[in-house]
Amino acid sequence: LNQRIGALGRLAPWVSRPVRGTRRHHKASHMPSREAAAAPEEQALAAEDDPMGPRWKSGDRVYAVWAGNGCYYSATVDEVQHAKRTLTVTWDDHDASHRTVSFEQVMEPSEDTKAWSMARINRRVSVRDSPGKGRCLFINEGVEAGHVVFVEKPTLVALPILSQKLWAHLQKLHEAQPLQLGTITFHFAALLSQLQLDPDSINIILDKFVPEPDEEPGEDVVRILKSLHETMPEVLQLGDKPMDPRRLQRLVSAWRYNSFGHHKEDGLVLYNRISMCAHSCDPSCCWSYGDEDAFVLRARIALSKGEELTISYLQDEDLLKSTAVRQQKLQNWRFTCQCTRCRLKIDVGRGFRCRKCRVGVLYSSVTGGLEPCRVCCASPNAEEVQMLLHLEEEYVLRVENLDKTDVSDVETVYQAAIDIFERHWILYVMDTMLWEAYREKSPPDAIEHQRRRIEFHEHYYCRPTFILAWCHEEFGDCLQNQFAHRKWQYIQEFQRAYQMLAILCGTNHQYTASPYNKLWQANCGGAANGNSASAGTPAEAQAAAASAAASSATVEVELDGDVRGVHDVPSNGKSSDPQRWGVGW
């Protein structure tokens, strides 16, 4: 298995969870823990040395089995009953059922999700000046794809619950006269920073990048402070030390350009080192959330010592749009991206069907023209180029205003567009709409649109993304339901999904566990009828899971070498799908 996983390099811990937080009332597959997979003999010896088993105390973070479906979820220990060898836990989603679990049904949280000390982070990465970009983050040692670069705790998590009265007051001001930024979150976070953080933490925020370091206080800042002075001085605890408007404006800008949208609530999160990561439309790193809002940064590709660490400020879906669209969205941060993708002479996400042979594709060039057809080598004349580019503008506007619930209208536009475009990002957008529309009521049509989504993604941006991984997993689901005899095909889709998610969020994440469980079930004979095969005792289950993985995980991922967009926002809710990504500002 270690050899077949390839990019992962080793067998990491496994946690069995249902698909992205949904409750599934069947016996879940069992996956071996790190200890069980690596050294069962040592585990047995440890059990003999400590016959009473593990010890926990109130407040400890654990993964425990929820009896509703036999899957693991994160929880906090409330009470330990040593005589009964059970724990009473509080589930992270506040579910009140099945709160008593046995010691045997509890696992320690992964080290990959716990925040590192700043000293450890500074040994792994360093901040250096980069020509034309300012201060950026660089790695001090080589890291393989999928490995953790570091895990950082937030400087501040600015949620409304931390000062409900202040939040309500800002909302009233915004309703009376909308703030220029269109939201109160940045001003709320800035005020909260001043009110709740120690001087060192405030200085960390003040040290962050802002386009105008000497910016004068804006109208909104002046209005907010005036209102607070008049109506809520006790909340701000101002006394004889009124808040400096210039300092507050700097805090607002620091939050605006350096924070991330919170993955569960209407709030913001700001980190120290992570905020030094520059943007790239081909980012070297990806990320997810860990314990207590920790930021887990992983290598998307193999990194060598001294390489710059980059993330995407855009959402995954925006990385699949044209260079011009990406550049426009990035103006929110007031810079023009000069990454390797943005510097390409040809934008292969803007393809036009050749007017001569009707088989080849004409791709747009940065000079405003179209390159020759790659099949018949014919070049369009100036009139044809202008006509096609004008049609593109009209179709982009039309697609942006489509109502995805009006399926017949989407179909009409799609049918007309495929006569003009080929391998164009607007086709991908419509394929996504039609996939969502047909996945339940017309699976054969949905399968074709999903296939086209995967094809375009791999053509235009070949690296692992959450969108691509989920496309493969959902494609496998459809194939399994529609063509149960094509076991080789849907297993391959689950493999690809698993291996991409293992790079993006680690092998013990609930997203990664989902395709792994499907692989396990398919190889244990449960795929045809949709039921999980019973694996017997825990030891037998672990052995069966390891055997299934070894026989199935054979495909390797090929890796060519705003509040920022949230790519992975796990929620431990057992009853509803978690939000997959947050909002880019």
Roughly how much helix do the residues carry, as a percent range? 25-40%
How would a textbook summarize the main sheet? 5 strands, antiparallel
- Measured distance between first and last alpha carbons: 42 Å
Rg (C-alpha, Å): 26 Å
Percent range for β-strand residues: 5-15%
Instruction: Identify low-pLDDT runs.
Output: 1-52, 527-585
**Average pLDDT:** 81
What class do helices, strands and sheet pairing give? alpha+beta
In DSSP terms (H or I, runs of 4 or more residues), the helix count works out at: 19
Identify the overall geometry.
Answer: globular
What key phrases describe this protein's structure?
585 residues, 3-stranded antiparallel beta sheet, 19 helices, disordered C terminus, alpha+beta, 5-stranded antiparallel beta sheet, disordered N terminus
Descriptive overview:
- The protein contains 19 helices and 18 strands.
- The protein has 585 residues and is an alpha+beta fold.
- The strands form six sheets. It has a five-stranded antiparallel beta sheet, with no helix packed on it. It has a three-stranded antiparallel beta sheet with strand order 8-14-13. Strands 9-11-10 form a three-stranded antiparallel beta sheet, with helices on one face.
- The protein is globular and about 75 Å long.
Give me the secondary-structure topology.
Elements: H1 2-5, H2 34-38, H3 40-49, E1 61-66, E2 71-81, E3 86-91, E4 100-102, E5 106-107, H4 118-124, E6 125-130, E7 134-139, E8 148-152, E9 156-158, H5 164-176, H6 185-196, H7 199-206, H8 219-231, H9 233-236, H10 245-258, E10 260-261, E11 268-270, E12 278-279, E13 285-289, E14 295-299, E15 310-311, H11 323-329, E16 346-353, E17 361-365, H12 382-400, H13 407-417, E18 421-424, H14 425-438, H15 443-460, H16 466-482, H17 487-505, H18 510-523, H19 538-552
Parallel strand pairs: 12-15
Antiparallel strand pairs: 1-2, 1-5, 2-3, 3-4, 6-7, 8-14, 9-11, 10-11, 13-14, 16-17, 16-18
